[in-house]
From TrEMBL:
A matching Pfam family: OmpA
Superkingdom of this protein's organism: Bacteria
UniProt source species: Chryseotalea sanaruensis
Presence of keyword Repressor: no
Listed name of the protein: OmpA-like domain-containing protein
Length: 674
């Protein structure tokens, strides 16, 4: 399902952060200590998880520590991240992804690393991280130092530093100098070749880049003009054309000491940074704040069981077409997103065992930071509206349908009698299903494999299957009743059982539905009466090759010539025409149009059932009914002479019901040719 949300109408929740006066620098209690150095903080988008490096383990050296903010604004006692610390001989520069599920850092591992490289770990649960994994691709090299990574909120760009080989050391500040690089993911999700950022950022001695949640604001440490002597914090913004603005010093932070490793939660109002061996926080003046962000978080669950599930979350910017993806937490199904104000997004939630869910977020009028909680319930059941049609006439077939899952389970096996050709199937993701349909008079079954796609959002889907009716080959030859010569005619095969009309030329072979009754009529061409006959396709002798031939004769137009109309029927004791009569009468209309110089008699006959006088009047009414129908179709009444003959001129002796049917007839007779 797809939901439309205008976040400006939502209830906003306060971001977990310190209520702090602008430009009031404060040491973070509990996190910072007097005895040890705390360095390189990184914070999650929601502002509740802080990870940093500390030298409190004298034997080990630098270790990564984690602290969590509680509901009243107090940081927990930092805990070492053992799964990472115990594997690495050297650690530095952690950077937590904005969804809180991936931690990037600089590491050296004995026996694996050739130099300091960038590694990452996945969160296992709220208190545990996975073991280090070396970042694949061109970011890491065997010779160079790669460190202090910073991952963008969309996960598509990684910023990091390498030693500035041309200017490795700044003598005045007595600091090592680095160059800031960026690597962007390719379409196949691999990391692209890193490129050094332009001179607006790389002036010669930089380090500790941090890209903010808006993916536009880059804060980094630099020794350059405008600073206060050692490493100071500078800020640059990525412009709409992809260029970076000239870096400006953050004078509300910078001091004569090293000021490094900035990090800001998505709320954008408080910065955490390193200075004087501790981690500080400070309120950010409005003019320095990043673009407005909105965080969206929640739990992805199975709609039926309520169990949390892992899902891929794909975010598409409706304005720019850009997209990024992440995964929900493998343990609790939690997801976290950072979206930029002024934009509109489509967020898609995918798991291969479920139907997808899509939500639109319109932030085009967003004016302040907000946090929104949205839990996602994914369905793993859906319905398939199955239709089984006759391939010729597209009507439902009361077919026998069997549905078997890819697990071999029978889901449905029955004849579609209640609503011919229709059934609503209850199916379950992620299984495929083999659907087979068979029907009487349909010699070949139809089989499809219904494949589930986790990209679909529709709880109701459709599948159409077609069955081909059994056919016979029919060829109709037409000749003159007087000369026996073949006559060119168009043949109309009107199916009396279903809505089907086949048009062909005399001598042309067509396919008719076996067992169906057809009224076969020749065209009404000038000089000849049309001819018609009723057949049942497939009855009679075939030509030995599975085909059937029909011979029809047409009567030349001359005074006195007569034609008995076929399939002209009336209700019992009534002059009202049955609908089946119109096909033949329409041929009479065509005949009169192509032969405008003739006048005809319309003679109606009855059998001998009933009184003579009654049958005479009944036949007269029937003759006039035929006249009125022909007149409504454009035939001139002046060319038509109706006459009722009752039972006076039988065609056959009224000795059987079959003979009486032959006697109940309407005949045309040519009276005049002008």
């Amino acid at each position: 399902m797809k939901n439309k949300l205008l976040l400006v109408t939502l209830l906003f929740f306060a971001q977990y952060s310190y209520s702090q006066t602008i430009q009031e620098r404060k040491v973070i209690p509990v996190v910072s200590s007097d005895k040890y150095m705390e360095f390189a903080p990184t914070i999650s988008a929601d502002g509740r998880t802080l990870i940093f490096e500390s030298d409190q383990n004298a034997k080990k050296g630098w270790e990564l520590m984690e602290s969590v903010l509680d509901s009243v604004g107090n940081w927990s006692t930092p805990a070492p991240i053992k799964s990472i610390n115990e594997k690495c001989a050297f650690l530095a520069g952690p950077s937590i992804s904005y969804d809180g599920n991936t931690l990037y850092y600089t590491a050296f591992i004995e026996g694996i690393s050739q130099s300091e490289d960038i590694y990452y770990s996945k969160r296992i649960n709220e208190k545990e991280w996975g073991e280090p994994i070396r970042l694949e691709g061109p970011v890491n090299t065997d010779e160079e130092y790669e460190g202090f990574p910073s991952i963008a909120a969309d996960g598509n760009t990684l910023y990091f530093i390498r030693l500035n080989n041309e200017n490795p050391y700044d003598k005045k500040s007595k600091e090592n100098c680095f160059t800031i690089y960026a690597s962007t993911k390719n379409m196949d999700d691999t990391w692209g070749e890193p490129e050094a950022l332009p001179a607006a950022i790389n002036s010669g001695c930089e380090r500790d880049p941090r890209i903010m949640a808006d993916n536009r604001t880059l804060i980094f440490s630099s020794v350059r003009l405008g600073g206060k002597g050692k490493y100071d914090l500078f800020q640059s913004r990525k412009q709409a054309d992809g260029t970076w603005s000239e870096a400006v010093p953050l004078d509300f932070i910078n001091s004569t000491d090293n000021d490094q490793s900035p990090c800001i939660a998505a709320s954008g109002d408080v910065m955490y940074f390193y200075s004087q061996k501790d981690i500080y926080s400070i309120g950010i003046p409005i003019e320095y704040r990043q673009s407005i962000n909105v965080t969206v978080h929640g739990i992805i669950k199975d709609a039926l069981t309520g169990q949390s599930i892992v899902a891929e979350v794909i975010v598409k910017n409706q304005n720019t077409g850009e997209q990024f993806s992440s995964f929900s937490n493998a343990v609790n199904g939690e997801y976290n997103l950072v979206l930029n104000g002024g934009q509109a997004y489509t967020v898609e939630f995918f798991n291969e065992n479920y139907l997808a869910q899509v939500i639109d977020f319109d932030l085009t009028k967003q004016e302040k930071f907000a946090t929104f909680k949205r839990n996602i319930d994914l369905q793993n059941t859906y319905q398939l509206d199955l239709s089984v049609y006759d391939s010729d006439i597209k009507s439902g077939v009361d077919a026998y349908v069997s549905v078997v899952s890819s697990k071999g389970e029978s889901v449905f096996a029955d004849t579609l009698r209640k609503v011919p050709g229709k059934v609503l199937l209850n199916l379950k993701a992620p299984f495929d299903y083999v659907i087979t349909a068979t029907g009487k008079k349909y010699p070949e079954s139809s089989k499809v494999t219904w494949k589930f796609s986790s990209r679909t959002t529709k709880p109701l889907m459709e599948q159409v299957m077609n069955l081909s009716y059994e056919k016979i080959k029919m060829t109709t030859d037409v000749s003159s009743i007087t000369t026996k010569q073949k006559v060119k005619k168009t043949i109309y095969y009107n199916n009396a059982n279903v809505d089907e009309v086949i048009i062909a030329e005399a001598g042309e072979t067509v396919l008719l539905r076996k067992g169906d009754r057809y009224q076969v009529v020749t065209s009404s061409d000038k000089g000849f009466f049309f001819s018609s006959v009723s057949i049942i396709a497939g009855e009679g002798e075939s030509d030995g090759m599975g085909g059937y031939r029909l011979a029809m004769q047409v009567i030349p137009v001359e005074v006195g010539a007569q034609l008995t109309l076929k399939n002209i029927t009336f209700a019992s004791n009534s002059a009202e025409l049955d609908n089946s009569s119109y096909v033949e009468l329409d041929r009479v209309v065509d005949f009169l149009k192509v032969n405008p110089n003739i006048s005809i008699e319309i003679a109606a006959h009855t059998d001998d059932v009933g009184a003579d006088e009654y049958n005479l009047r009944l036949s007269e009414r029937r003759a006039y009914t035929v006249l009125r129908y022909l007149s409504t179709k454009g035939a001139s009444a002046g060319r038509l002479k109706p006459i009722g003959l009752g039972e006076s001129v039988p065609k056959l002796a009224n000795t059987s019901e079959e003979n009486r049917m032959e006697n109940r007839r309407v005949e045309l007779k040519i009276l005049k040719i002008s």
